[in-house]
Amino acid sequence: MLHNSFHLSFHLALTVGRTATPEAVQFWILAPLAVIAALGILLVKKAVHSALLMAWVMVTLAIFYIAEDALFLGIVQIVVYTGAVMMLFLFILMLVGVDSSESFVENLKGQRIPSIVAAIGLGGLLISLLGRATVGAPAAGLGVANADGNVQGLAKLLFTQYVWAFEVVSALLITAALGAMVLAHSQKVRSPFAQRDLAIARFRKDSLGDAAGLPAPGVYARHNAVDVPALLPDGSPAPTSVSQTLRSRGDIITNAGFALEAIEEQED
Amino acid sequence: MSTTTLIGQDPGWLILVKGVLIFVFCVVCTLMAVWGERRIVARMQMRLGPNRVGKFGLLQALADGVKLALKEDLIPAAADKIVFIIAPIISATTCFMAFAVIPFTGKVTLFGHKTAMQLTDLPVSVLYILAIASIGVYGIVLAGWSSGSTYPLLGGLRSSAQVISYEVAMGLSLVAVFIYSGSMSTSEIVAAQHQWWFAVVLFPSFVIYVISMVGETNRAPFDLAEAEGELVGGFHTEYSSLKFALFFLAEYVNIVAVSSLATTLFLGGYHALPGLTFTESWLGGWFTLFWFVGKVVAFFFLFVWLRGTLPRLRYDQFMKFGWKVLIPTSLVWILVLATLRVMSQRAVSRPVVFGFSIGVVLLVVLATTVYDRSVAKAKEAATLPDLPPPSFPVPALPGQLLVTEASVVTELESQNG
Q1: Domain annotation covers residue A97
Q2: Structural domain boundaries, residue A241
Q3: Portion 239-298 of B in contact with A at CB < 8 A
Q4: Taking the model in full, what pTM does it have?
Q5: Could you tell me how far CA A106 lies from the centroid of its own chain?
Q6: Does A65 share its domain with A117?
Q7: B226: which of B24, B148, B234, B336 fits an S-S bond (Cβ 3.0–4.6 Å)?
């Protein structure tokens, strides 16, 4: 009864009265949620949250397709995109790290401007193509398209009229995936901070204060736990003696309580 | 009248009743499955299993459920709170959704309405089940990630890799069913099996499906995602109380779901065993439910049997099996099957079909023999020749000198002498 999702949304926005009520209700509940989630993809801080919101947007779109009798498209949307988002999720975990936010490290130097130009070009191409295909062309309607069944109709088009385009697009996608892997994987000749480099860096510093290494945690301290700072000769805690990892994780609260004076006061 | 149109005529209240009945069926199945599994595994390990709560310990699962609900509900400080709460909800809701398209009975009368015990039917029912399953994995992966701890994260990652790899094999095994039945709707697939079950006709697909369904539900021997010996509890390590109970429920409902799908696609669904088709009209058609549940229970027993028999696979073995054995095998099988199908549609003469089949079998035998030979050769090349036993770690016998000591002694003697 309706042509496609884009038409549907425009129609609904203009003339709600003309669509079936359940469909309108469903649209006005799900569409705002989808838009909010889509904005959230860009605005939330953690990459994993973006991926989740993306999955939600895809599922909502699938519900719209199903509501419009494009059953196969809706189901395939879920199968393909939830799988795809799952891969994205794994890439985030593996490449970006478990809980780090967006990183701006460029593996490929000077790719930003060409890629922006290419993206705009691709967007323009897609919009113009879709426009030529949809604007002004009378919609055949689902009744005609689904004459021999939804799946059969789609299969007939994909494997006869559009088989060449279909194969070309799949080859293109595989090339793109391989290209992304090859280009984004920067070859490091050797690890930037080997033990030798660290030793040299320590002696090149302005002060030779910690040339012999940082104080070990717990030395002359009250406890010998790793999260207890060492005490310097004047009784003040040495902040450098606690591993940076523990500090950034929030496992050590503050150094102040470990100073010798504070401890003596407590004991008195 | 086909089942699809029959279901389409259900009034709204009947759909609601069916939904509630299916939900109750799933929950009761879970309670019985937990009890049954513990009893069967106990027997396999020469124990008695739970037998204290209720007759034969039947109420054990219920008692455990109540106990779980009364436990303290912890959320770790490092957890991502919202995702941590959403994850078990995703798991527990999606697992029920697959049952919407499972045909439990043939045509029956329910409260005076002619219908079939199937909530709904879609032209793409089986794909719908796959879609729901792939959403269900999110529950596990998100639980692993949001716990903010190492073991759950490893469990979650393993499970996602596992499901992605085994879903491919599962999907390919379903393709054979689609080709043969000419439909993706569950009721039509069941109807297409009234004469021959697909487990017989499409035996390789059946085997591949059964293997990948065990992988898909994270059950032993493929329970790497919650490998107790390695990962504490895997993805649900940090969960307690009702949230843990939801994962527990989801696991068992999923087992019932994949077993139901296997029954529907390969064992003729609600159809009776061959030779007993007259029973299908007993009790006004309701007796078909007995056949359906019986087949599901048989699959469940297989699950428990596997768990009681096989040790857990190592992760790399598991992945190798999925990608290098299951997927290539199903691809070749589908190719052969599609060719046979086209031959039968074009009415190719019998001798040609037989010739083709024999050719395929010969090719497979030849390929496996060549492969086995090459593996054996590689193994032979890899083994080292027998060396004399090393003398070093072995203490010397009385009066015996080790090689090095002997040489030192002779050297010293020659110097002194």
Answers
A1: yes
A2: 210-267
A3: none
A4: 0.74
A5: 16
A6: no
A7: B234
